[in-house]
Structure formats: structure tokens, C-alpha cells
Amino acid sequence: MTSFNSPSQHSPQMNEASNEEKTGDSEQVQIPFEASMARLIVYCISVPYKHGETNPNCCEMHYFSVNQISTLVEKCPLEMIYLTQRKFIRTYPKASRVDSSNYNPMLSWRHGIQMAAINVQKPDNGFYINDGLFIKSNGTGYVFKPSQMTTKGSTYHPQMTKPATGDFSQRMKIEIFCGQFVESEHFTDLPVAIEMEIIGAVEKDCQSFYTEPSNNLFNPVWERSTFTFDLSLPSMCLLLVKVVSVSRVNRLV
User: 161 with 137: CB under 8 angstroms?
Assistant: First the structure.
């Protein structure tokens, strides 16, 4: 959700080659680090979060479980947005997710949180949402926040009902015509339908629509299935497409 900036010239440097220094009978060994990675250490010192801090140290990073961050953003969403303009924050799935399932990372992103840890071994909705955001980064591992989340004086808020300062709302229309070879071991129940879901940073943008159900799994056809989405922050909206049966939901591939 953000880019890593280079540290100042006074940041500590680490040698790329191992050196040994003998002092009496003891030996001190310097472990080699890649220089560009070593410079990031100054920005990633994990410290506990103190509510209401007014002069945060940009070299410190806070970390929260998804339960903790849900409580914090419910009580003080704007405070979290302002905090992420000056610090790195990381969220992670709660330990009770023994099945390695994922939470919705958009909960973190919509409040400016830069790092949302994901269980990559579980291909569920949270996994696909994370994949959808970072697929446009061409493998770099990061994307830039929208300017509305970083600009001082911006009117951005997850519960806003009008476009934020500096952004333009958009209307998106999607029409579903037909499908092919929908039948599989995952869809033994009839009928089936297509679900179109928008996952966005602004709660008003989050919408779901369904096509009419179809009993034809080989070549289903949907007539008059046009969906209209009004998006107030389109740069932070993702489209999730699913095939829905009576008993289960699966992602359309």
C-alpha cells in the first residue's frame, strides 16, 4: 500500500562481506547483509501502539491482530488514517484461524494500513482480494496509496457518501451474456447464478448483484443481466466474480 523510501545519509550501513575482529580471546563476527535491505531496518522497529500519540516516530512500526484493528477503526477511524500517513502498520490473521482462512484485507487498506498479512496457502476470498490489488504491481510487491489517503486536508473517510477531494466518481456497467462448461464436481446443485461483488475502500462502494438462476450448466445464458456500479473511489475498488450454486460458492476462473 505504500513505497519504501530510502533512509537519510546518517542511517547505519552494513558491510556486504564478513569481517572478523579479534579482541583478546573473543571474536566478533559481522554477518553480511544486502545493503539496500539493511537500510530498511531503521524503518521497521516494532513497538506497541499507544492510543492518542501526537508525535509518532516514523522509524517505528505497529502491529495488530485483525480483532484489534477492527475495534480500533470502529472507535477512531480517522486517527488510524492519520497515523498511517507517518508510520508503517501491519495486521495479521488471528491465531484462532486454525484452518488458515483469511480475513478481508480491505478492512486494513481502507484505513491506510500498509501491510495486511495473508495466509497464501488458503485460496479463499481474502486471498483473491489480496491478489487482485497487487496483480497490477508487476511483481514489485507494493502499490501506491491513492492520494486521498495521504494528502493533508483530504475529505477521504471510509464512511463518506461523496467523492473525496481530488478524486472523480465513476459509473461502471457490466453485462453478463453466458457461460460455458460451468458443470463440475463443485456444482451438483441446480440452478447456478453469477455473483458480481465490488470490494472497495469506501463502504458505500461495496455492492453485490446476482444474475437470474439458470438450470443449464453446459452453456447457461442470461438475458437482461446488466449491472451498474456507482464508485466514489474507483482506484481502490476490486471486482470479485463468483459462480454461485445452492450449496456453495466458488470463484469463477
Answer: no
Domain 35-149, architecture per CATH: Alpha-Beta Barrel (3.20)
Q: How far apart are CA 199 and CA 203, in angstroms?
A: 8
The structure's pTM equals 0.73
Domain 35-149 and domain 170-245 have a common topology: no
Confidence band, pLDDT 50/70/90 cuts, at residue 20: very low
Listed residue (94, 52, 92) closest to 75, CA to CA: 52
Asked if residue 38 lies in contact with residue 14, where contact means CB atoms within 8 angstroms, the answer is yes
Per-residue pLDDT reduced to its tens digit, 102-134? 999 999 999 999 999 999 888 899 999 999 898
186 in Cβ contact with 248 (< 8 Å): yes
Architecture label for domain 170-245: Sandwich (2.60)
Q: Residue 247: name the closest of 205, 199, 186, 196 by CA.
A: 186
Supply 68's cell numbers.
484489534
Q: What are phi and psi of 41, to 5 degrees?
A: -60, -35
Hey, which bits of the chain come out as E strands? Answer: 19-23, 26-30, 45-46, 60-65, 88-92, 115-116, 170-175, 193-200, 207-210, 226-231, 237-244, 249-251
Q: What is the pLDDT of residues 22-80, one digit of tens each?
A: 444 556 677 666 677 677 666 678 888 877 776 667 778 888 988 888 888 888 888 88
Residue 64: enclosing H or E segment and its boundaries?
strand 60-65
For the chain, domain boundaries: 35-149, 170-245
Largest CA distance in the chain: 85
